[in-house]
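Example record

One chain of 396 residues, shown exactly as stored in the release files.
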Amino acid sequence: MSMNDTPSGERVHIAFFGRRNAGKSSLVNAFTGQELAIVSDVKGTTTDPVYKAMELLPLGPVQIIDTPGIDDEGALGELRVKKTRQVLNRTDLAIVVADASQPLQASDRELLGLIRERSIPCLIAWNKADLLQAVPPARDNELWVSARTGLHIHELKEAAARLAGQQEPKRPLVADLLQPGDLVVLVVPIDKAAPKGRLILPQQQTIRDILDAGACAVVCRDEELPQTLAKLAQPPRMVITDSQVFGKVAKMVPREIPLTSFSILMARYKGDLELTVRGARAVETLRTGDKVLLAEGCTHHRQCGDIGTVKLPNWIRKSTGTEPEFVFCSGRDFPDDLSEYKLVVHCGGCMLGQREMKYRQRTAADQGVPITNYGILIAHLNGILARTIEPFPNLA
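Predicted structure tokens for this chain:
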């Protein structure tokens, strides 16, 4: 996979914020070297966040986001401002674009407060510095730049790469659980939900992480799992399965072989595994009429037997003997207010960044709403949750 093919969830998200006509879109175009955003003297030209994948050396693959003005007005303006604030939830580095000919305004200071609350690394880019008689030197993550003349754009990119590169590195997906030479069996069902001619993203990422650990991956369908295990000279270090066949695979894999799922690995990789394990147990308290939110981080074509909208609700109904009310959301449309829900069940989040996944989990936790993960809940419903989290040290 080249950098250009790097999924959005694995990219550093760099977002440009600021007031209308501060020159955000012009600066984004100068920063990316492309005509990414529409530029106009009319206030409020940018109406929705604009996303662009690019490489920022020496950092690597990033996602650039141009946002609407934080000071937009009227009912439509309020919606734009709301979208801008939602972008903060997935931002790894914020670049606040201010007009160099003016002091910071109330909306700028409010924005900086929101950024500090979320502990997001931040740069202030004082744009239109070409209009000043003298350009001040850079100081404390503040630079004076000009999108029109290109002044200090290179320095801005270098500062962005440096600051974004200081973030705590992500933990491995599975490599830290393996030793060089280990063999891992991956169980990949091929059904209607499987993409034609390829593996889904978590499966691809898991294979790559196994290889990075110096271990070996053996991939088979659930139908061939018994024969595959029988042909191995020694038991595998671990079996990792698609969660949809958890119950079936658990019966095939000897108890002494560690077993988990791609979805559970993603729960640990992207967020708080312990929180989502606790959340799964809340399914036992559901009553008829309780609201359950099933959330996915991406949008895709729903098929017959879709796991999020069909299989999981049916499994929950069967296990609890109740008829909850299921609500569905996907992509970036995750509710800020979760107080009406008794449980949130989230996908693995392979298309979400770690910051956004943790934000969603924290939103639920702050409101006292249990949140869990597809694979963790499926393991719980099959009575094998304790077994499937055994591979993870320091987890109660």
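Notes: Confidence is low (pLDDT under 50) at residues 38-42.
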